[in-house]
Amino acid sequence: MKRLLIVLLLLPMGLMGCAKNPATTEEYEAQTNRAKSYAEAKDYDKAIEAYSKAAAMKPEVDTAYKLRGLTYAEKQDYQQAIQNYYDALDRNQDDAETWNALARASAAIKDYSVAESAFQKAIRLKPDYADPFYYRALMNQERGKRDEASYDLKRCIELSKDVAMQEQARAMLKELGVK
Fold first, then answer.
1. Which of 21, 27, 122, 149 sits in a 20 to 30 Å window from 167, CA-based?
2. Distance of alpha carbon 155 from alpha carbon 62, whole angstroms
């Protein structure tokens, strides 16, 4: 009986000693940076694998999921991209960039109701963020919604600090016949 009691008392300590140590922030960042390097080199499969390892290291952090989603979007695998954006949003509902990315991927597969809702959320979270206005304008132009596209392009020009984006928005306005 005494031996059983000692075993039962020591068992939890043995199990704790066997538990794998969680990854440090430095290890997670190194893995994420490795994945970014692969993505920049357009080695998307390696990037996805590296982002998956980063996500496993710190599953509570949204960054690896969002970046893996962006990598899937680069491969035009929009369903996988969307799933990863939702995984990121499960961890951080307040990231306007993730909402914008979700909207863009949803628009790419012509799920316009999800895209519109996600663009709206991105704009609500970060009203001075030009990207959702620009990409929503593209979606609305494709759908023949000229007035909505014009409004978004004007807002994009107003907000964007990116000269190339401003020029593209101006060209699209001109194409729409708006001054």
1. 122
2. 29
Contact yes or no for 71/41 (Cβ under 8 A): no
Residues 22, 32: contact at Cβ < 8 Å?
Answer: no
- Consecutive sets of 10 residues in the chain, 179 residues long: mean pLDDT of each? 44 42 84 96 97 96 97 98 98 98 98 98 98 98 96 97 96 89
Residue reference for tokens 């599953």: 59
Q: Count CB atoms within 10 A of the CB of residue 160.
A: 20
DSSP 62: S
SS (H, E, C) 25-44: HHHHHHHHHHHHHHHHCCCH
Instruction: Give this prediction's pTM.
Output: 0.85
